[in-house]
Amino acid sequence: MKKILEYPIKFIRNCYDWTIGWSKTKYANWVLAGISFAESSFFPVPPDVLLIPMVIAQRGKWFQIALICSIFSVLGALFGYFIGYQLYELIGHQIVDLYNLQSAVGVVSTKYNENAFFAIFTAAFTPIPFKVFTIVAGLCKISIFTLTIASLIGRATRFFIVAILIRIFGEKIQYFIEKYFNLLTIVFTILLIGGFSCIKLFAK
């Protein structure tokens, strides 16, 4: 088991070290914007991975960093909506197939019929794969106003909470991350997989 996890942990560790250095460059905000946008529509890695080291490196800019993350994540959600609304057969179903969530489409559709706002907010705030919800929102043609407001509230709440915590406990959190990096990597992976598994579980 240790050998199985050794290479993924080493890879993620290298990515973390690279990100810490990269977060101090003048291009960091653009990269954060790109990841935030992409994660809401097709990319699997959440922007928190970059947001955290950026705030650690520039604690005085926590508000700006969280704001960029929130705004571009919502813009990405609108792009995901467009994929579901206009390009589902061309692109949308391929994204769903990539994450093996075909059966989840029906479940998400049902959740929208029950309470679209709450469903989007929950996906935006938690590790549940947000991209599935944004794409299916377009496929189901729910109100784009509902999508925008629920996404904004959910994403901003999540990213600002993370940024504020890092702003307050920055050095301590960085020390904690450095000391328990391997354990945190495993926990993060479990949470990411768990988010996908939650949708699959409801789909059964």
Question: How would you explain this protein's 3D organization?
Answer:
The protein is an all-alpha fold. The protein has one domain. It has 9 helices and no strands. The N terminus and C terminus are likely disordered.
Summarize the structure.
The chain is mostly helical and 204 residues long. It has helices at residues 2-22, 28-39, 48-57, 62-86, 88-98, 104-125, 130-139, 144-179, 181-203.
**How many angstroms separate the termini?**
29 Å
Strand tally, please? 0
Residue runs with pLDDT of under 50 for 5 or more positions = 1-5, 199-204
Give the biggest sheet: none
Radius of gyration: 17 Å
The helix-and-strand class reads mainly alpha
Broad shape: elongated
Number of H/I helices? 9
Strand-and-helix sequence, N→C? HHHHHHHHH
Helix content: over 70%
Task: Give the tally of structural domains.
Answer: 1
Strand content: under 5%
Mean pLDDT: 77
Main traits of this protein?
single chain; 204 residues; mainly alpha; 83% helix; elongated; disordered N terminus; disordered C terminus
How are the SSEs ordered, and which strands pair?
Layout: H1 2-22, H2 28-39, H3 48-57, H4 62-86, H5 88-98, H6 104-125, H7 130-139, H8 144-179, H9 181-203
Helix pairs in contact: 1-9, 2-4, 3-8, 4-5, 4-7, 4-8, 6-7, 6-8, 6-9
